[in-house]
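User: Some background: our group keeps a shared notebook of sequences we're curious about, and every so often someone picks one and asks for a predicted structure to add to the entry. Today it's my turn. The entry only has the sequence so far, pasted here. Could you supply the structure so I can complete it?
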Amino acid sequence: MNDSEILRIGFLIFPGFPMACLTSFIEPLRAAGEIAGRQSFAWKLVSEHGEKVASSAAVSFEPDCALTDLRDVDMLFLLSSPTSTFTDPKASNGILRAMDRRGVILGGISGGVFPLTRAGVMAGHRCSVHWCYEAAYRAEFPDMQAEGDVIVTDRRRYTVSGAASAFDLALRLVEDRLGADIAHEVACWFQHPTMRGEGVRQRVPMQASADPSLPDLVGRAVALFAGRIEDPISIGEVADSLNVTPRQVERAFKKATGQNPTHYYRKLRMKAARQLVLYSKDSMAQIACAVGYASPTPLIAHYRTAFGLSPQEDRARINAFRVVGDMPVPST
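Assistant: Of course. Here's the predicted structure to add to the notebook entry:
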């Protein structure tokens, strides 16, 4: 593809897709055309059957065509919630696989990586998964290479974690086709301070009482905790791994976070449990096992302490706010 050609991009939208992800990708491309004085990008909105689609913000979009009628695109990005599925998966997944054979770049934005993976086109590829969907993604696709980077491109698979990273990927496409100066001006138009590329990790919320930058000892301990959600590690084992005493670990956590390491670790496990409660259909027994409990009873007790309601109540509460079908909120 030479510089004089137009890069043609399709956006396959599912009910309840995150609207910000779509606009964050399209707007930089539009601005680049205005700044450069020539059209270098073209895009189409696509739905499975050509039907109107309501976003997570309850704003409806009229697609340009149905998936079966989509022709002549160089890239296709899926935008959805984690629980989105095709109404006719055999036919629609087959279309995605056929597009892959024709050399079309396939991608997923935010929850769009879920139906992309279900289509069977991600085997052997790395992908970016938003931190709030990570536990649900790993539970459904344990053999996939899910990563915490904001952007992951692996051959002809482009995946990004959310709306801001969709903007970053759009800037990268602008830079590739129109140069760094145009990409920089587009970023300035939207007051986008930096263009993040691959290798940049997602920012994950810490406890409110935590320092902006955790001390080395605490950071290394948190990394050990995060790697042992399903098979919990004791504070003594953490201390041994870090060549310190358990008392040193406790003092460091108390100073940096205002919590003891046991409570901090439990909150990490509860966050992982909540992802599975909100973004999967796993039973309470399965969720308990996934976050290191032998039975649902202690999970439910700790979940209620952490969030003020049981996991069953939390799932029912989210269901009450779903826009269409199984669309969970929040949508990133």
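Suggested note for the entry: The chain is about 45% helix and 15% strand. Residues 257 and 264 are 8 Å apart (CA to CA).
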